Amino acid sequence: MPLQMKLGAITLDCPDPLALAAFYQQATGLEPHLESNADFAGLNREDGLLIGFQRVDDYRAPSWPDPTVPQQLHICFNIEIEDDLDEAETQLLELGAGKPDHQPHDEAKARVLTDPAGHPFCLVRR
Predict the structure, then answer these.
(1) Mean of pLDDT values over 49-66
(2) CB atoms within 10 A of CB 118
(3) Distance between CA atoms of 113 and 71, rounded to whole angstroms?
C-alpha cells in the first residue's frame, strides 16, 4: 500500500514573521494562528493547512529571476474569475507586493509578484 501523505504546513523564512503573516492574511483571508509571535507566525486554512513564517537572522531576499539568491519557495494562487486577475494584482500591490519586470507567462493568464520579503508567487487565472 503506498504511503498516504497530506500536506500540513508550508513555512517561509523571512525577517519579520508578523508583518509577512499580515500581508498573506489580508491577501487570502486566512485566520491567524493563535500562538503567532515575533519569531514564528502562522495562518490557518479550514482544512488544517498552516502557512508559517519564521524569523531568520541575516535573511536575504530572493533575487528572482537572477539565481544569485534562489527563490527559496514558489507559491501559486488561483484566481477563479477572469476579470479578477487585474483587480487581484492591484490589491496585492497596494498591500505591499512587488511586480518584477520579468514576467515569464502570458499576463492574461498569470502574473508573478513578490511578497514584502521578496518571495515570488504567481497569480494564475483558472
Answers:
(1) 91
(2) 18
(3) 12
**What pLDDT was estimated at residue 109?**
86
* Interval 47-54 mean pLDDT: 93
SS (H, E, C) 66-119: CCCCCCCCCEEEEECCCCHHHHHHHHHHHHCCECCCCCCCCCCCEEEEECCCCC
CA distance 75 to 72: 10
Candidates 41, 37, 36; CA nearest to 52 is: 41
Residue 62 has which C-alpha cell?
530572493
Tell me the sheet residues that pair with 125.
79
Query: How many distinct helices (H) and strands (E) make up the chain?
Result: 2, 7
Nearest 5°: the CA angle 41, 45, 86 is: 95
CA 111/CA 113 separation, integer angstroms: 6
Asked whether the predicted pLDDT for residue 126 surpasses 80, the reply is no
Q: To which H or E segment does residue 41 belong?
A: strand 40-44
If one compares 60 and 107, the residue with the highest pLDDT of the two is: 60
